[in-house]
Structure formats: C-alpha cells, structure tokens
Amino acid sequence: MLKDKTKHQRSKAQEDRVASQTGGKKTPGSGNKFYAKGDVKTKHILVECKTTKNDSYSLKKDDFERLMDQALSKALDPVFQVDMPNLSLAIVPWANFMTMLGDFELVMNQQKRIEDLEKSLKILIHELFKQEKIEHTDEAFELLHKKLNSGDIPEIDLKL
User: Fold this and answer.
1) With contact defined as beta carbons under 8 Å apart, do 92 and 77 qualify?
2) Could you tell me the CA-to-CA distances from 51 to 13, 18, 55 in Å, in that order?
C-alpha cells in the first residue's frame, strides 16, 4: 500500500510544478526569509502556494493582503495558488483578472485579423495565378514579392 505524501512533500511538489509551469524560480526557504517572500517568483508574478487534502480551503483576507503587499513591493502581480483534491486554482485580484481578460480579447482580435489577412493573401495569390498564368506556387510568391515591392498590386475584390 502506498503511503500518503506528507504536507511538506505535497507543498514541495506543488512549488516545483508551479515554478516549472510558470517558468519561475522557487523562493529559498519557501518564502520564510525576510528578504524573499512568496513561494515562486517570475518576471511578472509572485505566487503563494497552498495545498490541502480537504475539499475546501479558507483564504483569509490578511493572507492575501500580505501577498499583495509583498508582490507590489517588487512590482509583481500577486497570485494565490491553491491545490485541493482534483482541483488547482489561481486566485488573483479582480483588477488583474480584468486586465488578463482584456489582453485575451486583444489576442483573439489579433488572431481574427491574422485569419482575415491569410484569406486575403490566398485570394491575392489565386488571382495572380489566374492573371499571370502561373502554374507553380514558388513563381506566384516570387511575382507577389516583386509586385509588393514595386507597389504594382492588381485591383482585386477581396470578399471576406
């Protein structure tokens, strides 16, 4: 029969995982030094890790405010990371979440713009094939490159 891991073993494994997943470094002494707080630190965040075998975890306002103070003193964003059985959570201030949501939407909009540009490029290449009677993709790209550099782009209705 396998022996359950001790709390210390679970905490160490959690900190190792969080450091690996975030590209961060574990804090010496698991944050118990006056000069190095938190459990994991990256270029952008300070993470406090907590683990429990229970199905609930009670986060105290003072604990989160302490993490916020420690993070902000180093110009980092605070993340309180809690592991429970079959559940891993990251708790962040609401303002940080809204910033992340805005960043996510910006990335999604950029992705949509890239997809639209890819469609336009495919249409342009297709039209070049027809207009220039090109049979090979390399020739089309070479011609497209020349036309782009010369500013001689054919008028094409790019319906998206």
Assistant:
1) yes
2) 10, 12, 11
Q: Over its length of 160 residues, how does the chain's per-residue pLDDT go in tens digits?
A: 445 678 888 999 999 999 999 999 998 765 555 545 688 999 999 999 999 999 999 999 999 999 999 999 999 999 999 999 999 999 999 998 888 888 888 788 888 888 888 888 777 777 777 776 666 666 666 776 777 777 665 555 544 4
Enumerate the domain spans of the chain.
7-92, 96-150
Say if residues 27 and 57 touch (Cβ distance below 8 Å).
Answer: no
- CATH number attached to the domain at 7-92: 3.40.1350.10
Distance (Å, whole) CA 56 – CA 53: 9
What's the pTM?
A: 0.63
